[in-house]
Automatic annotation (TrEMBL):
Residues 236-317 form the Reverse transcriptase zinc-binding domain. Pfam families: zf-RVT (PF13966). This is Zf-RVT domain-containing protein.
Length: 318
């Protein structure tokens, strides 16, 4: 046969993955959202379906391939549209920006991870293995996690002498500049094993800075080189990688009020919208020329978030 073919639910490709190769993923997400009776689902119900069903559909491919940017954006669009409108084809904007929804709960988000970020983090697990799949992308993305990787040098056969951050989290090119390659007389594509001889360092004596490295680190046994994850006891987790890739924001004071153990998702969602002032109350609809009256249905005063939750005598009785 000829490529591409489907194997274990994934396409086997002879070239870089294109958007056309991902139509099965997008169609599956769209069909699944269309199969639910979303008009009867609360926001909390949609939240649960997104976390348990829709997100798991894209995880398999995100952990195997580098998806095109257009595909990751379309996955996020389908998820966003389902959350706010109950279908994959909603055209109106949501009550809260998707970038805010995808923040951790303690930073005021819902704890979701965008498809692009999850794809980057999932592919980075290959760093821990001698795997050639998508290696160019992994090498590019690995700089994001340089401070969280620990190189254990053995025989030096698997480690780039100049470009891998094996020396205290920094590569030799970063430490000494690109000119160090020419000054040392060692090839640009050399492995670390080229300066190891019988378990000892064998640096060129013409470059004193390199010989000083012998005092900074010791050569280990003749075992293979290994890369360790410096978080969570040395075990790489995609969730940890996502937290590193995402820009870290400040913690909001109210997040435990909205999200706490055994909370009801529908209620938590409502409280979350309240803190972001995202409820479409009549005072906002009047300003947007959507409604002609801003009177509260229960007491006749001006309807606002503060009024409904704290001042309205009708809601107080409820």
């Amino acid at each position: 046969g000829s490529l591409p073919v489907i194997y274990l639910g994934l396409p086997l490709l002879a070239s870089k993955m294109s958007s056309m190769d991902c139509t099965v993923l997008l169609d599956k997400l769209t069909r699944r959202t269309s199969s639910w009776m979303c008009n009867s689902l609360s926001f909390g119900g949609r939240l649960q379906l997104m976390a348990s069903v829709l997100f798991s559909i894209q995880v398999y491919r995100c952990s195997t391939f580098i998806l095109p940017v257009a595909v990751t954006k379309e996955c996020d669009r389908i998820m966003r549209s389902f959350l706010w409108h109950g279908s994959a084809y909603g055209k109106k904007s949501g009550k809260v920006a998707w970038s805010r929804v995808c923040k951790p709960k303690k930073e005021g988000g819902m704890g979701f991870v965008g498809c692009r970020v999850w794809n980057q983090a999932a592919i980075l697990k290959i760093v821990n293995y001698n795997c050639s799949c998508s290696w160019r992308y992994v090498l590019k993305s690995r700089n994001l996690l340089a401070n969280y990787l620990l190189y254990e040098i053995g025989d030096g056969m698997s480690t780039s002498l100049w470009f891998d951050p094996w020396l205290s989290g920094v590569s030799l090119v970063e430490r000494y500049g690109d000119s160090v390659i020419q000054d040392s007389g060692i090839q640009r594509n050399a492995r670390l094993s080229s300066v190891i001889k019988e378990g000892e360092w064998d640096w060129p004596v013409t470059f004193p800075d390199l010989t000083d490295i012998s005092n900074l680190t010791a050569v280990l046994s003749n075992s293979t080189d290994r890369i360790h994850w410096m978080k969570k006891g040395g075990i790489f987790t995609i969730r940890e990688a996502c937290n590193i890739i995402n820009t870290q924001g400040s913690e909001v004071e109210w997040w435990k009020i909205a999200w706490f153990p055994r909370s009801i998702p529908k209620h938590s969602f409502c409280v979350w919208l309240t803190f972001w002032e995202a409820h479409r109350t009549l005072d906002k609809l009047v300003r947007g020329v959507v409604s002609s009256s801003n009177c509260c249905f229960g007491c006749g005063q001006e309807e606002s978030i503060d009024h409904l939750f704290f001042s309205c005598p009708f809601t107080a009785r409820v």
